[in-house]
Design a protein that fits this description.
Blueprint: H1 3-24, E1 29-33, E2 36-40, E3 56-61, E4 66-69, H2 75-88, E5 93-98, H3 103-106, H4 109-114, E6 118-122, H5 123-143, E7 157-159, E8 163-168, E9 171-176, E10 188-191, E11 196-204, H6 217-227, E12 234-239, H7 245-268, H8 273-279, H9 292-310
Parallel strand pairs: 4-5, 5-6, 6-7, 11-12
Antiparallel strand pairs: 1-2, 2-3, 3-4, 8-9, 9-10, 10-11
Length: about 300
C-alpha cells in the first residue's frame, strides 16, 4: 500500500468511525402513543458523549406546549432535550415534572426554568434533591465535565400529597408517591387517558436495578406492588425500553420480591451477610440483564444488611 492509498484509508476509516459514533449518540425520541414520546437513554453509565442522559425522559404534548418528565443532567443535557422536543413539534416547554432525585432527573431544572417552564415535584423528591445536590454534582462532573456549573433549582410547585392530580394544557396527569425506592421520594407520573405510566427508577428494564446505600429495597418492593395496580398499557421505565407490565414484572417486580423475601428469611435466621451473598450469587432468571455481574451481589449485600439492622 503506497502512502497516498494509506492516507486515504486512514481518512475513510476515521470518517466511518466518526459517523458511527455520531449515529450511536443520536439524541431522539420515540412515539409511545398519541401525544406522548420518550427519549430512551443508553443502558450504560454517564459519559461525555451522552451528557449524562443514560436515563429515560418523557415528552407530553398539551394545548399549552410541551410537558417534560424530568429535565436531564444540567444545561448541556437540557438543551439536547429541548432540541428533541422542538424537533417533534415546535412549541414551548411549559412545564417539567420531576419524578426523581437522581442527577439526570432534575439538574436541568435551572435551564428550563430560565426558558419560562414551571417545575413540579413531589415534596419527598425536593427534600432529597436539596440534601444530595452537592454530592450529585461532584460525581456527575467527574464523568461529564461539560456539565460543570450546574445550579440548583427545585420545584416551583411542591406537591405534598401521595396522589396529586394535575391538568396542564388539557392533559390530566397524576403524580403519585408509593414509597421510597431507588432514591427517597421517588414518584411516578400516570396519564390515565393515554394509559401511560412513567415509573422513573422504580422500574428498570433490560438492565439490573441498583440498590444504593440510600435506597430502600423494602419500601421499593411495596411501592412497586402498589403501583402495579394501575391499568397501564405503556410502561416507560427509568432505564430500558418502553414495555408493559409483563416485562416489568419479570425484570423488576419479581427481582424486588425475591430480593426482599429471601433476605428477610436469611436475616431472621441470623445467617450473616457473607452467607447471604454466597448462597444467592446466582439467580439465572436475571442474568440476562446488563450490569447483573456488577450489581446483583451488591444488591443482596445491602438489602440483607438493611433488613438485619431493622430487626
Amino acid at each position: 500500500m503506497n502512502r497516498r492509498t494509506f492516507l486515504g484509508w486512514i481518512t475513510t476509516t476515521a470518517w466511518a468511525v466518526s459517523s458511527f459514533s455520531a449515529q450511536a449518540m443520536e439524541f431522539k425520541a420515540q412515539k409511545v402513543t398519541d401525544g406522548v414520546y420518550a427519549y430512551i437513554g443508553p443502558i450504560t453509565d454517564r459519559t461525555p458523549e451522552n451528557l449524562g442522559l443514560n436515563n429515560n425522559i418523557g415528552f407530553i404534548d398539551t394545548a399549552k406546549g410541551w410537558v417534560l418528565v424530568d429535565s436531564g443532567a444540567g444545561d448541556a443535557a437540557a438543551k439536547k432535550l429541548e432540541a428533541i422536543a422542538k424537533g417533534i413539534k415546535d412549541q414551548p416547554i411549559v412545564a417539567v415534572i420531576n419524578i426523581g432525585s437522581q442527577d439526570h432527573r432534575w439538574l436541568g431544572n435551572d435551564y428550563f426554568s430560565k426558558q419560562g417552564a414551571k417545575i413540579y415535584a413531589y415534596a419527598g423528591s425536593v427534600k432529597t434533591q436539596t440534601a444530595m445536590f452537592n454530592q450529585e454534582v461532584e460525581s456527575l462532573v467527574r464523568k461529564v465535565p461539560a456539565l460543570k456549573g450546574v445550579k440548583m433549582k427545585t420545584a416551583d410547585v411542591v406537591l405534598e400529597k401521595a396522589s396529586n392530580t394535575l391538568n396542564i394544557g388539557g392533559v390530566e396527569m397524576q403524580l403519585n408517591f408509593y414509597g421510597d425506592a431507588h432514591f427517597p421520594g421517588d414518584s411516578a407520573l400516570w396519564l390515565p387517558k393515554q394509559k401511560v405510566l412513567f415509573t422513573g427508577d422504580m422500574v428498570y428494564l433490560d438492565r439490573m436495578l441498583g440498590v444504593h446505600p440510600w435506597s430502600n429495597p423494602i419500601t421499593w418492593n411495596e411501592a412497586y406492588q402498589e403501583m402495579r395496580k394501575l391499568p397501564a398499557n405503556f410502561i416507560v421505565p427509568g432505564h430500558g425500553q418502553v414495555s408493559d407490565w409483563k416485562k416489568a414484572d419479570a425484570e423488576t417486580g419479581n427481582y424486588l420480591k425475591k430480593l426482599v423475601s429471601t433476605m428477610t428469611q436469611l436475616a431472621e435466621d441470623f445467617a450473616g451477610v457473607d452467607t447471604a451473598v454466597e448462597e444467592n450469587r446466582d439467580w439465572p432468571e436475571f442474568k440476562h440483564l446488563k450490569h447483573y455481574d456488577s450489581w446483583h451481589k451488591q444488591n443482596v449485600n445491602r438489602t440483607y444488611l438493611k433488613l438485619e439492622a431493622s430487626m
